[in-house]
Amino acid sequence: MQGISFTAIDFETANNYRASACAVGLTKVRAGVVVDQVAWLIKPLPGYEEFHPVNVGIHGITAAHVRNMPDWRRIYGPMMDFVDGDALVGHNVSFEKSVIAKANEASGLPAPSLEFHCTLALARKHLQLPHYTLSDVVGALELPAFNHHDAGDDARASALIAIELARRNGAAKLDELWPTTERTSARVPSYYSAGYTRKLADLPKANPLANPYGPLFGQTIVFSGDLEAMPRVEAQDASATRGATIANSTTKKVTLVVCAELERGGRPSAKVTRAHELAATGQNIAVIGELQFLRLLAFK
């Protein structure tokens, strides 16, 4: 696997704004072997420094942990020095791509020219799994256990997924593992794009083994609009993992509409309008915003 060389990357954020990076993990791979790894805590940029309880509950990083850490403007140079022009690999790498773009924009830094490859897309292509979270894929490939949502561990896990799938498929270089049409260098693939709607047959199935006491278990959820914290497809997958049924339209079976526009002052969508109509007839259906959804999602 002489051509399997890249840097895997993972970010954690303080809140649902992509510019609020509070940790980064980087793992360097050369010829299919992990050769180096670094991880840094980051003090979020001014205006993005609030640590939301949902995020803290996920990664455990607080404002106290980063008080004396460098901010994005000081960490960006060393980070890019470590990357050294490599293609960047990550699980749902559209998130990492947007963190870099938004943090650079907030810092007045130019957008870098980088090539991105997604292990989530790779796993979907080569594995048949009920769910494709980083933990699910690591388990399916029987890779070493890791501390999920630790940026350093997540980056290494993403690297090992790419290496293992390259080995299983006999790929000698990245172009074989990720054909040109599947790259995210020029633009994010439509699957992760704003406004992308899955076909009904592609919607994730509810996990029957999820915690039955969780707030999303047994719910039937529709997403209206695009979330700030994650692509809609990732929110759908995460909800299904916690036992929710995912729908594309507001019907009499729907119990919860997640409205991204609710906290932005936008006009109600047709899905939200229909939800209010059904609620007026006595149906048990609620409309919530992104922040409330993230709080429900954080419940394991």
What are the main properties of this structure?
Nucleotidyltransferase, domain 5, 9 strands, four-stranded parallel sheet, alpha/beta, 300 residues, Rossmann fold, five-stranded mixed sheet, 35% helix
Provide structural commentary.
The chain is of the alpha/beta class and 300 residues long. The protein folds into two domains: 6-192, 2-Layer Sandwich (Nucleotidyltransferase, domain 5), CATH 3.30.420; 200-298, Rossmann fold, CATH 3.40.50. It is 35% helix and 16% strand. It has eleven helices and nine strands. The strands form two sheets. Strands 3-2-1-4-5 form a five-stranded mixed β-sheet, with helices on both faces. Strands 7-6-8-9 form a four-stranded parallel β-sheet. α1 (53-59) runs parallel beside α11 (290-298) and α5 (119-126) runs parallel beside α7. 40% of the residues are buried.
Short structural description:
This protein is an alpha/beta fold and 300 residues long. The protein is 35% helix and 16% strand.
Distance between the termini: 39 Å
Mean pLDDT: 88
Domain module tally: 2
Q: Major beta sheet, specifics?
A: 5 strands, mixed
Order of helices and strands: EEEHHHEHEHHHHEHEEHEH
User: Uncertain regions: pLDDT < 50 for 5+ in a row?
Assistant: 181-195
Topology:
Layout: E1 6-13, E2 21-30, E3 33-41, H1 53-59, H2 63-66, H3 72-83, E4 88-90, H4 94-107, E5 116-118, H5 119-126, H6 134-140, H7 151-169, H8 174-177, E6 220-224, H9 232-241, E7 245-247, E8 256-259, H10 270-280, E9 286-288, H11 290-298
Parallel strand pairs: 1-4, 4-5, 6-7, 6-8, 8-9
Antiparallel strand pairs: 1-2, 2-3
Helix pairs in contact: 1-11, 5-7
